[in-house]
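Q: What does the predicted 3D structure of DUF2776 domain-containing protein look like?
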Amino acid sequence: MNYGISVLFRAIPLLMALFCFGYGAFVLGMGTDPARYVAGPVVMSLGMICIALFATAATIIRQIIHTYNTVAKYALPVLGYLAALLTFIYGWEYFSEAPTAGHFVAGHVICGVAFITACVATTATSSTRFTLIPANSDATGHDTPPQAFSAIQGNILIAVAALLALTAWIWTIWLLVKSDVHNAYYIAGHVMAGISCICTSLVALVATIVRQIRNSYSHPERKWWPAVVLAMGTLGILWGLLVTTEHNPAKSSIGYIMIGLGLVCYSISSKVILLAAIWRNTFKLANRIPLIPVFTALACLFLSAFLFEMTGMHEAYFVPARVLAGLGGICFTLFSIVSILESGTSKG
């Protein structure tokens, strides 16, 4: 990877973060429509995921181009976790500051976004020894390199991501159980379900990276972890399609956000599939895998455009249309990450 390309791949997450922050602020500042107080903050919070993805991108790229140092080793993961912490605090404060359904939904969703951001930060942390992956892939034994994570360190990284995913699922169940209290619980619960699918997908990614770094990645795992991510993406999309059959547009419109979150899972699958495909194997189509997040980004943007037209029929589609635009930015950011992985693991 030459320096110019490395700059581009690091710039993409920052540009998408800028888009989410700017577009979210624009939506929020356009008026006093209650829907803007949901769409604006949620889209802005998606920018924090991009910040954490930047930390991941920079962590891997600096190792590839040999500019990685001790400061970057600690500062980049800390940046990701700091973004997650700030997002969670903002979300918690947002649904606490006003007793409205909009603040309730937006606040819970933003807290869910914080869980995703923390999982991405864990991915950045697990990638701090990324260069061991291609080295281990070329080896034939299963000895753990001395520079790799210890068994305890590796298990902690996987456990952190798993705990975040479990917390998201518990929060989801709590919200859905109370769906009969108010529509806000139904809406927040279903969006949180999609977020939980993403967190679970990131557990698979963290586990894949950690186990390949430790050279303990087994042949069956080449199928298990990609299957987990694809299952989460499929669950999110099918669940979303089911929700769209609701007669109440306030409920059915949320299905489109779940579909978008499922597409993000498919974007994550590109990285898990790539790492599985090239592990002690020559995969000639490896350089085509980065097209997956490109297609998912386009799908989010096309769906967003469709929902913008639907907004003219019912205002309930206002929020999904804006959020899907932000999710498209997330998917495109994931394109840069998988492209970096492909470059760093390429045997060509």
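A (community wiki): The structure tokens above were generated from the sequence. The mean pLDDT is 92. The first helix runs from residue 3 to 29.
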